[in-house]
Amino acid sequence: MQIFPIRPFNPPGDIPALRQQVRDLVARHESRWQLETRANPWFSFDAEFSKALGAAGLLAMNWPKAYGGHERTMLERYVVLEELLALGAPAGLHWIADRQTGPLLIRYGTEAQKRKYLPGMARGEIYACIGLSEPNAGSDLASVRTSARRTPEGWRVNGQKVWTSGAHRSHAALTLVRTEEGSERHAGLSQLMIDLDTPGVTVRPIVDMTGSHHFNEIFFDDALIPLDALVGTEGNGWKQVTAELALERSGPERYLSSHMLLVALIDAIGPDPEPGIAQLIGRLTAELWTLRQMSMSTAAKLDAGEDPVVEAAIVKDLGNAYEQALPRLVQAAVDADLAAKSDLSRLLVWLLVQSPSYSLRGGTPEVLRGIIAKGLGLR
Amino acid sequence: MSDNRQLLADMAEGLFAELSDADFAGAWPRLAEAGFSTLLVPEEKGGFGGDWVDVLAVLRLAGRNAVPAPVAEPILAHYLLARAGIDAPEGFVSIAAPGRRVPWGRHADWVVSVEDGKASLHAADACMFVEGVNPAGEPLDAVSFTGAPIASAPCDHDLAALGAFARVAQASGALEAAFALAIEHVNTRHQFGRALAKFQAVQQAMAEFSEEAAAVDAAAAGCAAALDGLDEAGFEIASAKLRTNLAIDRATPIAHRVHGAIGFTMEYALNRYTRRLMSWRSEFGNDAFWAERLGRQVAALGGKGLWLEMTARSDRLIDAA
Ligand SMILES: Cc1cc2nc3c(=O)[nH]c(=O)nc-3n(C[C@H](O)[C@H](O)[C@H](O)COP(=O)(O)OP(=O)(O)OC[C@H]3O[C@@H](n4cnc5c(N)ncnc54)[C@H](O)[C@@H]3O)c2cc1C
Predict the structure, then answer these.
(1) Domain, as residue range, for A107
(2) Do A176 and A276 have their domain in common?
(3) Measured between CB atoms, which of A15, A86, A282 is closest to B292?
(4) CA A137 to ligand 1 centroid distance, Å
(5) ipTM for the predicted complex
(6) Which residues contact A266 (CB under 8 A, 6 or more apart)?
(7) For each successive 10 residues of chain B (321 residues), what is the average pLDDT?
């Protein structure tokens, strides 16, 4: 039993030219980006850049043309994503819509929902967020309690979501709710695409420990949500969410979040490093290269219609561990003045404080290893 | 997998499984007869005409079966001879690894060395061996050459790198075998009234183990593809060997931990894999060796250059596919 059979990554078309297109676009915008904006780039926002990507045909790349997409492959999209991350381009505003909300609507949404959201998402103008976690439902997502009751006028939604990344900049939240009163666990859940400007829906900021306003709470106070906001089938929410999560686990964003610090380290050290630092750079490179092989192979499996649940969990767990260890390893090896204004110091400080979140967003190591153990038949 | 490669793998699997309890004298003639040695020698030179992906398939199986005889060394030796245009002799040809250590040297009829840009073929009677063994108990003999080589020719291959690839391939198989033993063990051994596998701490440890084995599989495959598709694969080999060494560091303790005392016995099979993994971590470059070499290469590329180089290299492999 080979745990991780490899599938070669063979996207069609002129891939070097595609990379160059992204690199040129980044070069045209990068002068306005702060260093901190470029670290952890899929959590940083720049609406102008998101729109520029849309205009260049670099969003919604594998969506149908009828909804503003470009009918290219997931693998070409993968190349664009890894370039954006490696170059430190703030791509956070559209990231969720492009990665999971759009694809979920394509798969489960009604025609009206597709028309309403997808073209704007493809232009980089409509943004979405993920309404899963609640105060009492984190790792144990099946214990969500936010309820939606069907009435003739619409869904009456009550409850609260929390840790919702980018809700304050998003137009809609794909929200997991309990549509069957008294249901437990995986049963009776559904997904609603809730416009965040609906009366009775309140988004409140939560300041994270970097001092940023990135995530939020969303409160639903008897909010009336149109009946046709139901995405997919009533009661099928758990299955749909599981499919959604599979899209988000194995991407390049699971190991490149600290890449800008590696770039800064190499530049700060120069072409003739002392052995200890050379070894650190070598070790980080070896892990980076291997993770990229694993992530590309998993992308190729997704593209081929396989369902690599275990592989995706492996990539995320190993990738998070790498991108999280990177700032700590740099801190241990380089005598950096943390109060200095050098690129290396600023990035190091920012990522030291930012990186604990990497292994929380999208599922913790314990949850991922639980998924792997299940795949191995141990539970 | 191509049909040919499947046939090759089936043959290797069958033979290696039979040889797992043999000694050198019993195993070598069977290996020689099967013809693995010429895997990388072109067909027109009488070889199998395979590629590095074939080598990976065979060496992975050799590692998985803990074959107690040289499989990798003659493949590399015959490859180097063919590349250098030196006629290959009959018999067992080994290689002089860095530090002039020859795996299975005392049994070798010939030894190939690569030094100062030249590949040389030495007859055993011009070699003086001081016997040694690796942690797995396999011969790893120090050689000094007491006479002139039979033949020498220019050769720009890096034997340390090719050997490192071989150890990566073998390690991927050995990790899988150790992992399979551990899975079997935690599913059957009961403590506190249930199978070990039912304890969350054990599940999490096994998941970590699987991640490390997965990383080595990915590294080995990426490396074989680079050896086949690029002019030189120094970057990929350094990355793969170093990542493999890290995986050995992380995974072998888990293998032993979940086994308890039974895994520490000579009789139980686990040590066949873990002692070899311990050996291979040092052979053809330990962590520090490859980390420093790779780190210097990357430092010369510059911060952005690392990404540009890494993607340019893998994009060339798309074209090659
Ligand atoms: C920066 C950031 C952005 C986020 N963005 C979003 C978002 O956009 N939308 C959204 O819905 N959520 C978001 N989240 C929430 C994220 O999904 C949760 O934080 C995560 O699922 C963990 O849940 P929790 O925080 O409640 O921790 P808990 O579930 O309480 O876990 C705490 C600890 O207990 C461990 N634990 C829990 N259960 C078990 C178990 N059965 N066995 C062993 N260990 C266990 C966990 O592994 C963890 O170590 C975000 C989080 C962060 C940090």
Answers:
(1) 15-126
(2) no
(3) A282
(4) 8
(5) 0.97
(6) A281, B298, B299, B301, B302, B303, B306
(7) 83 96 96 96 94 98 97 98 97 95 98 96 98 97 97 96 98 98 98 98 98 98 98 97 98 98 98 98 98 98 98 91 60
Chain B nearest-CA residue for A372: B207
Q: Give the end-to-end CA distance of chain A in Å, rounded to a whole number.
A: 18
Rounded-to-integer distance, Cα B216 and Cα B222, Å: 10
Q: Does residue A244 sit within a domain?
A: no
Tokens of A106: 């394509």
State whether residue B178 sits within 8 Å of chain A by CB.
no
B145 and B179 housed in the same domain:
no
Protein residue with its CA nearest to atom 37 in ligand 1: A139
Ligand 1 atom with the shortest distance to the CA of A131: 11
Q: Pick from B208, B218, B246: which is nearest to A294 by CB?
A: B218
- pLDDT at position A246: 73
Last residue of a domain, one of A76, A92, A126: A126
Q: Are both B144 and B165 inside the same structural domain?
A: no
| Residues A202, A155 within the same domain | yes
Is A248 known to be catalytic? yes
**A239 CB near a chain B CB, below 8 Å?**
no
Q: Please compute, for residue B90, the number of CA atoms within 13 A of its CA located in the half-sphere on the CB side.
A: 2
Ligand 1 centroid–CA A365 distance in Å is 10
CATH label of the domain that carries residue B295:
1.20.140.10
- Residue labelled with tokens 């690029």: B230
- CB–CB of A278/B291 below 8 Å? yes
CA of A360 to the centre of ligand 1 (A): 5
Do A229 and A292 belong together in one domain? no
A42 within domain boundaries: yes
CB atoms within 10 A of CB B177: 22
Task: Confirm or reject contact between A329 and chain B (CB < 8 A).
Answer: no
Rounded Cα gap, residues A107 and B303, in angstroms? 40
Both tokens assigned to A372: 């792997």
pLDDT at A249: 86
pLDDT at residue B320, as a whole number: 67
With CB atoms and an 8 Å threshold, state whether B294 touches A281: yes
What is the interface size between A and B, counted as CB pairs within 8 Å? 186
The answer on B141 and B54 residing in a single domain is: yes
Give yes or no: residues B234 and B149 share one domain. no
Pick from A263, A290, A334 the residue to mutate for testing the B interface (most B CBs within 10 Å).
Answer: A290
- Catalytic residue selected from A83, A248, A253, A323: A248
Cβ neighbors of B70 (< 8 A, separation 6 or more) are B28, B31, B92, B94, B103, B104, B107
pLDDT in tens, chain A (379 residues): 688 999 999 999 999 999 999 999 999 999 999 999 999 899 999 999 999 999 999 999 999 999 999 999 999 999 999 999 999 999 999 999 999 999 999 999 999 999 999 999 999 999 999 999 999 999 999 999 999 999 999 999 999 999 999 999 999 999 999 999 999 999 999 999 999 999 999 999 999 999 999 999 999 999 999 999 999 999 999 999 987 787 788 899 999 999 999 999 999 999 999 999 999 999 999 999 999 999 999 999 999 999 899 999 999 999 999 999 999 999 999 999 999 999 999 999 999 999 999 999 999 999 999 999 999 999 9
Closest-CA distance, A336 to chain B, in angstroms, reads 18
Cα→Cα distances A180→A170, A188, A189, A241, B40, Å: 27, 5, 7, 17, 64
Domain extent, residue B52, equals: 3-154
**Given an 8 Å threshold on Cβ–Cβ distance, is A269 in contact with B310?**
no
B76 touching chain A per CB within 8 A: no
Q: Domain for residue A242, yes or no?
A: no
Whether B291 sits inside 8 A of A282 (CB atoms) is yes
Same-domain pairing of A115 and A178: no
A287 close contact with B: CB closer than 8 A: yes
Residue A243 is assigned to a structural domain of this protein:
no
Find where tokens 């380089």 sit. A334
